[in-house]
Amino acid sequence: MSSTNLTFANRDAHRAWLASQARLPAGFRVGTTRFDFTPVEAPKPARMTITLIALDRPTPDFAAVFTKNAFPGAPVIVGRQRLAEPTLGAIVVNNKISNVCAPGGVATSERICAAAGKLLELAGTQVLPSSTGVIGWTLPEPAIVGGLPQAAAALASGSILPAAEGIVTTDLYPKIRRADLGGGSIVGIAKGAGMIEPNLATMLVYILTDLAVPRAELRAMLARVVEPSFNSISIDSDTSTSDTVVVVSSGKVPCADFAAFEAALADVCRDLAEDVVRNGEGVRHVIRVAVRKAASVELARALGKAVVNAPLFKCAVAGNDANVGRLVQAIGKHVGAHAPGTDLSRLRARMGGVEIFAQGVFQLDPTKEAALTSHLRGAELYTSKPTADGIFTATVDYPPHERCVEIDIDLGSGTAEATVFGGDLTHEYVSENADYRS
Amino acid sequence: MSSTNLTFANRDAHRAWLASQARLPAGFRVGTTRFDFTPVEAPKPARMTITLIALDRPTPDFAAVFTKNAFPGAPVIVGRQRLAEPTLGAIVVNNKISNVCAPGGVATSERICAAAGKLLELAGTQVLPSSTGVIGWTLPEPAIVGGLPQAAAALASGSILPAAEGIVTTDLYPKIRRADLGGGSIVGIAKGAGMIEPNLATMLVYILTDLAVPRAELRAMLARVVEPSFNSISIDSDTSTSDTVVVVSSGKVPCADFAAFEAALADVCRDLAEDVVRNGEGVRHVIRVAVRKAASVELARALGKAVVNAPLFKCAVAGNDANVGRLVQAIGKHVGAHAPGTDLSRLRARMGGVEIFAQGVFQLDPTKEAALTSHLRGAELYTSKPTADGIFTATVDYPPHERCVEIDIDLGSGTAEATVFGGDLTHEYVSENADYRS
After folding, report:
1. Residues 6 or more apart from A438 whose CB is under 8 A from it?
2. Beta strands in A259-371 (DSSP E)
């Protein structure tokens, strides 16, 4: 579960809280610019935001993990090369178009880095690029290069909020999480909100810190903390071609306790990951599946993902329908297909603390059904309501609470455990994605 | 593609065609009965249909394949045992409740078989049970046993249509496919319509023939023909706990040509499988993915399923949005996760005959986008239209045509191929499944 248990009454309350979390670590500045353009492949007006994150001084201490999709975007290809560079000085991000398998995409990405670097007195190889948005379209390179001076002119220390707002696509609200420790801070921002089954990962995440953690330690820590955070969530089982998580240290503040830093980094990552789910496309319920006493962490995590990716169970949750038969179906499907030797006779399953399955059979009655329905209603983020023309859009642009649909699966046959976060499957998801590009 | 290319202007035209296909093979009778009852776990009125399929004389020549879900329903557990019995005399099917992991479910199933057997002068072990519907609820055994005499009294040779209508749950229309050969026939019926990723399989399928094919040959043929038919479809990636495909021969007509019989059986299975997709819950587009020049049939089929199970691509298809970036994402996700050694540089992809991807990059322009949109519109089964309260239900109760969204993926690195069928992800699917039990 989130390390926080926040509630927000409205957008203003949420934005005020974001502002309170947004102070940049020492040594960083962010700036953005926005412009209209026309995609080559689909001649309709579109809008793009460029976000620049710049270090006061290039740093050797940065880490990044990228998508495992076999068609990585051009910025991911470039980003993997950047890991071998001695220092990083800036990050340049565009939304709206993801630059995946576009003709000449890598060269375009490199030219944008070079142009950004020139403005910041950096080599292009000191700039990490990211792009997110429609797959298949071509970046409007002249418009981006033309907009970079404005983004550079806007660079300011103080707040990371402009960057958190600049990198989003279909996100309902910006996402910021921070930890303050040892006289410094760790501040992370994330872009969701669809094509989310990080492996790793379906989103863009940038985590900045002024605490001095050397490159090798930072990379080892990132590899560890992404597993229980960004690699344990799934909105829709789709793995983006652009997923990127970057951690950059400006080294301004000595770090006395690496273990405390890693724990704080893990918290920031876990909370951002949960934020990404909570703001997933069309998500009206966050589903948390804790799998315990499994033979391996891999089985526990895969089983949790099988549950949060089972469309029929997700639809039932959307409807506040405690159709736990579909939950058991999802468990049985995964085990039957991927772990057929697993002994399921000791399986115990709970939803919202209510035992629903034990000793090989369902444990249901009308009283329990009512309790389950009440639990589902309590975890709902907002009520679904269509417009007159049958389009469903989210009725909140802030996270009203952090309650989840709580599923506990005890396999009774091992010592490993894992927790996975996912969302329900709603009309809002379909409305969002049946008409995203137009 | 279907071996037929049918179109129907309305329900009556479709029902007339079904009636023309419905003649029972010699040696079989079917009868149904329907009654209201109250589920123990959810005290609301419900309706159940019992379908009996009886042979004039018990036959040793029957075959069946069942779900691989690790929580098989009680009828599947019993059905697997029946395969060892010397003869089969009848099949008893109920809809509405699936009898999965219900306390005492296997004993209940056996008692229902015994009661049906008694009416038909058979041992209970000569009766194959099937149940489909809500998982987790308990069968109303007294009501079922009480209804069996009426179903037995209704037994009639002539038409299989009552059985095709009796076994459905959320299906929009009955499904019948037949082949006439060698003086006999093969007639199959299928129940969809959700929790469909047969492995094998998410549905109930009964195929009756009067052609005499001995048990061993029949079982070997069934094992072969389910792979390119029922094991090559997916509505929602969910694997039911009740999937069952049964083939029964009454042996009334000598079979002179086993190869011709198997080819006809394969056609009936393929067409029924495609029917199940076409009538899948909320399906408004059937998506056919042909994967060619793959390293193995397994890779080809898994890649096809990855495409038809990619939620974002399915949503785009629902919206007649040629968002082929999501198609490539789905391919890349599968290959990245499951076949990372695959060389994708020779991948060529087409939609509706239009080349969209080759030589590592998208091949798109506004003319092609228009052609793709037109192809998607042409494959739409019906237009989505919500009711005033935002509930989406199918506006057809017959299959208007058999056109598909045609995806061709050429991996350029092998000789294997497979074709997979799936559906889009629509508001109708969500409406159906967020409120199925109430």
Report:
1. A44, B321
2. 286-294, 348-351, 354-358, 361-362
Q: From B73, which residue of chain A is nearest by alpha-carbon distance?
A: A329
Task: Kindly identify which residue of chain A lies nearest to residue B320, measuring between CA atoms.
Answer: A434
What residues in A contact B341, CB-CB < 8 Å?
none
Nearest Cα residue in chain A from B435: A319
Nearest-neighbour CA in chain B from A191: distance (Å):
17
Residue in this structure with the two tokens 């306790």, named with its chain if needed: A257
- Residues of A (322-341) whose Cβ lies below 8 Å from B: 323-326, 328-337, 340
ω into A115 cis (within 30 of 0): no
Question: Which chain A residues contact residue B312 at CB under 8 A?
Answer: 194-195, 236, 238, 433
Whether residue B329 and residue A431 make contact (CB cut-off 8 A), yes or no, is: no
- Closest partner CB to B319 (pick from A315, A425, A435): A435
Q: Does B6 reside within a domain?
A: no
Active site residues of B: 202
DSSP code of B389?
T
Residue contacts between A and B (CB atoms, under 8 Å): 264
**pTM exceeds 0.90:** no
Residues A167 and A90 both lie in one domain: yes
Q: In terms of CA atoms, which chain A residue is nearest residue B104?
A: A361
- CB of A243 within 8 Å of a chain B CB? The answer is no
Note whether A237 contacts B: Cβ–Cβ < 8 A: yes
Q: How far is CA B380 from CA B284, B377, B424, in A?
A: 6, 5, 10
Range of the domain at B364: 286-433
Pick from A386, A145, A237: which is nearest to B425 by CA? A237
The identity of residue A159, as a single letter, is S
Contacts of B408 (CB under 8 A, 6+ apart): B289, B290, B292, B348, B349, B350, B351, B353
Chain B residues inside the 8 Å CB shell of A234: none
Check whether residue A269 and residue A317 sit in a common domain.
no
pLDDT 10s digit of each residue in chain B, 438 long? 456 788 899 999 999 999 999 999 999 999 999 999 998 887 789 999 999 999 999 999 998 888 877 788 899 999 999 999 999 999 999 999 988 888 899 999 999 999 999 999 999 999 999 998 888 789 999 999 999 999 999 999 999 999 999 998 778 889 898 999 999 999 988 887 655 543 333 478 889 999 999 999 999 999 898 888 888 777 665 556 667 888 999 999 999 999 999 999 988 888 888 888 888 888 999 999 999 999 999 999 999 999 998 888 999 999 999 888 889 888 988 888 888 888 888 999 999 999 999 998 889 899 999 999 999 999 999 998 877 777 888 888 888 999 999 999 999 989 999 999 899 999 988 888 886 444
In a domain, A2, yes or no: no
Does residue A132 carry a catalytic annotation?
A: no
* Cα–Cα nearest to A291, from A243, A225, A237, A339: A339
- Of A103, A324, A433, which has the smallest distance from its Cβ to B136's Cβ? A324
Residue B229 domain flag: yes
Boundary residue ending a domain (B214, B245, B278): B278
User: Looking at CA atoms only, how far is residue B46 from chain A in angstroms?
Assistant: 15
Q: Are B188 and B268 in contact (CB under 8 A)?
A: yes
Task: Among B225, B256, B278, identify where a domain stops.
Answer: B278
